[in-house]
Amino acid sequence: MKTGIRLTSIAVSLAIICVLLTGCWDYKKIDDLTLVAGMAIDKASDDSGYKVSLEAIDFSMSVQENSVKTQIIQLEGTTIFDAFNKTKTQIVKELYFPDMQIICISSGIASDEGIANIIESCIRSTDIRESVYVIISRAESAEKIIKPGEGMSSVVSAEINELIDEIGNNVSSGKKSNLYKIYNQINDSADIVLPAFSVKEDSPVIDGMALIKDSRLVGYLDQEYAEYYQMAADILNNATFSFAIDESSSFNTSISITNNRSAISYDIKENEALRLSVNVSFDASVREVYSSADVDHAGGFEMFRRECEEHISKKIYELTDKSRQEYGVDVLGFANHIYRDAPEYWEQIKDRWETMLKEAEIFVDVDINFTNTSFIS
Amino acid sequence: MNKSFITVRNAFSVLFIMILGNYLLLGSPFNAKQDSWLSILIAFAIMIPVGLMFARLVKLYPEQDIFFMFSDAFGRAGGIIGTIVFSLYAVLISAMVVQNYARFFQIITLWSTPFIVIAAGIILTAVYLAKSGESALGRWSLAIIVLLFVLIAIAFLMTSQEYNFDYLFPAFNSSFENIFAGSVSLLALPFGDIVMFLALGDSIKKGNGSYKIFMISIAVSIMLMLLVFFKNLCVLGQSTMESAVFPSYAAARMASLSVFFERIEAVISYYFVFAGITKTAVCLIAAAKGSARLLKVKDYRSVVVPVGLAALALSMTLFDNTTEMFDFIRKYPYLSLPLQIGVPLLLWIIAEIKHASKRPLPSMNKLLD
Amino acid sequence: MHKNEKKQEKLERKVRQLNHGRTDNIKLGTSLDENKELFLELFKNVGTLRVRDIQNKHGAGRFCIFFLDGLTNGINVNQHVVMPLTESDAMSDGSICEESVKQLLYVNSVKRVDSIEEIIESLTYGDTLLLADGIDYAFLLETKGFTLRAIAEPEGENILNGPKEGFNEAIMTNLSMLHRKLRTNEFKVEFSTLGRRTKTKICVCYIDSLVDRSVLNEVKRRLGTIDIDGVLDTNYIAELIKDKKMSPYKTVGFTERPDVVAGKLLEGRIAIIVDGTPVVLTAPYLFIENFQSNEDYYLNFLYTTFARILRIIGYFLTVLTPAIYISIIAYQIEILPPALTLNIASAQQNVPLPAALEAVIMLIIFDLLKETGVRTPSSVGQTLSIVGALVIGQAAVEAKFVSAPLIIVVAFTGLTNLLTPKLNASAFMYKYIFLIFAGILGFFGVIVCLSFFIIQIINLTSFGASQIRLSGNMKLQHIKDILIRAPWTAMKTRPKGLSQNHTRMARKE
User: Which of A125, A155, A167, A184 to mutate to test the interface with B (most CBs of B within 10 A)?
Assistant: First the structure.
């Protein structure tokens, strides 16, 4: 018993001494960290690397002014992580990435060298979460997107994050993508659609969708197609949107959409031509009607419904056609669908896919089920 | 010292945590990509007879551990050789398990902590658990297993928003060699270590309990493996899953219930400490029992501490970094399959022969009447 | 002179021998005066000793009674001892014998004694010693009458609904309360004495047909090995018969309430009652009893189930909360939602110390305050607690010595500690240990320490049986009283493993 106590006390005191002398190795003092909320990647000024701008939360200023204050840290380096190392030469505390929500890539980098390198190095890092959102900047530089404007008193990246989170519940933009999903798509050589942002009155706004092919930026789809894209790509959940059935009139019709379902399929015709179809169906209720048809009775309502369907399918066809003809991009993911459905067939047509896409016949079918007409008939 | 017994359900928990803990950490081999679930099923098919064999061994030698089986089947010299080999193998496995788990924790948060601190944390607790006896081990596993189920359920629910069933297709696209290679890896790593459990054989009461223990734990763990595999695949997608070193952890990173619960993967992953401690404790008990038998020490509990320290020392030098570790795991089947399945097979055959010869032949008796 | 001195020396020698415990050759003589002198010498300087010489009216003989003032019932002594001895003419023929004396005295217990040790023991407990001239033995008369504390509700264990009796310091009163609750002859009471100088009476109680024999034998064996100077309280015994001497966890239960003891006896447990203290021990002890309170049985079962689960959670919270707080803000800040991160970071801004050190200091200060609160007289206590809690805490935050979230964490820890007062010792120690591990290794350290903690609890035994029964064969009847408190209609059997006889309630046909 005595030796047991002696040995235990020796062991315990040794352990305590070791720990006290060598310290806690990974203890992070929270105020020694710089919390990075968002990252913007541009080309370096001398064109030989990256200029990384980080939106970091400044705690000391926040305490003084009693609201959240952010600062922009600018670093340059040959690679992104080389740039991070440069913080050691500046008066910046240790960068803390796990809270980062946005990675903004400038259009310059995206179109010139593509996003593959950046995405891969980010995925490889354990600090950066795989669920960060990636956006493309349509403004002059990516930095402008995350730079807080004069009147802004909150974290810009958090606001952008919220905007993106809301995609699907409003008709703001195309598609939200996490880092790892983009990584998957790059490895599958699929075409990627990312939200594009620009700056309006010092605050970031969603401005269409960026189309990426072979991990390079090839073009944009404008904001007008945003809602139709969402419908077709099965991203829309519930939203209200307005459109003009009759282009000459200056009034719009508004409907509320719920239960949107969309399915894409393909058919192989006799002469090996493809027929790609998109079937969209949703429930809707009317908010405002400005149509030539008289909606108060059934016949007129039926006509109104058909007008809506035609309009929407026309728009969906336009966006698909535009992206495939002008940019060679398969926005709705037909390639992926064919691969998953019939991998042997995909192996055959893989090399000729682009031409086949351009020559394929696209068929859009929209089916609206009007449930009610709001409060007044 | 009273002999401590493990009840059937406790033993089931021990085995279950051993198998599933390792699987949750390292994931299944992704040779066959989205068809890897077939690897799991094939491994299950192979494990059924192996599990039955283990159970039969335990039944043939009621309340005896594997070292007794060695000396009974192979004679005195063979028994000593078998004991030495098995104990060394047990120490190796404990060191490897500690390396697996400790590297994991080092990568997630404890970057600069010296490796020995993390390894010592796991091993010292495992030593304490081993010293407390098999019955304490059983009760501890039962307490832990509830937490395991809860955490798996939470992980399922929280990532449910991110499921994308597209990732499952195209199905049945991989070659049979790939699928089979995956099964072999699975057999080696989580399943093979079941053989360690035979060293605890003397704590299972006589009777058919051993069948229930082995078969039910194998079956239930296969089911959960399949579920976890599908969950990971649906959340992560093929490329990410291939490149992710710790797939369940990566999938848990996507978990989000609302702003508040977004980044809890760290908390879920720390569960692995419990699993690591359990498995290390089982291996340490096996090694300690073997050493005790060799050194003619009556109670293995006095030998556990030196064995644990030996395992600690070994785990420090075993691998230098994670790349080496995964490389070894890839080559591991060559070492483990002969030891984990071949040797018990031999034991079983000899034991069956001996058992059959002991039974009086009924027809002879009738003739003599 | 010489003769007197010699006599005095001889007497002193005798007394010294007696005091050192060698009583074999010291006997009572037949001469009343010699015996009287012996006892006067033994009890020299004992101011409470009273001696009364009695001379029988009818010449039956001379008697002498000894008793200690304050311990005896004066009326009893006067009316039932002195008067009959003085007045009676039964022994006028000069033959004093046991039967005649017994017939004479109106006392409910007259015992003949030869050993001086027994005389000393009984005299100091309130019996009266009767010496008679011409016989070489003495009589001990039952005349106990001392004042005791009134039966009141024990302060530490008060409840809302239910019996409010509590034990007091006399073993007989305590046993009387138990007898009234367990009116069966199977309720066995076995007396013995412990303590060389205090000669404290203790008794072991159990219900014969329910108790587990092996545990009973173990208890008796351990009690037999106690060799100590004095036993003043049950805690002395508790620590001497503990399973593992250094563990902070209890292996016997303590209680001051007779209804609790009766309930435990009915479950097949054993009670040890010690004279001079109202605290009674119960053995064996299950870990879950730390979380049970007897009023669970007097209140509605849904509420008490919830309360019991809350207590268990509270125990884990009290040891884990500071550790988890430190792990989160020092190792895994990303767990917190951004708004909370901001608040905590701003609170940490100007605080000089690192969070772990702060936490340790605040915990120590909080324990200090709690200790002070326990010991201050009630008049000062109120003001002091308000000053301590509000002012010091508030001022410390404003002076930026500590950060506000930490105060909340520490206060929460202290509050949850009060849920399980029985586990104070272990909670107190483990709080700090968990905190240190968390400070060094973050969540990993917490979980390693938690494993140690759980393994230690699993390893707890009480008199040979383990305190936590997790055999995995969970039938509903076994957990009905552990995690939840099932309604009485559902508790058909006794808790497993405690007694031989399982049926508590008859099964309805």
Answer: A184
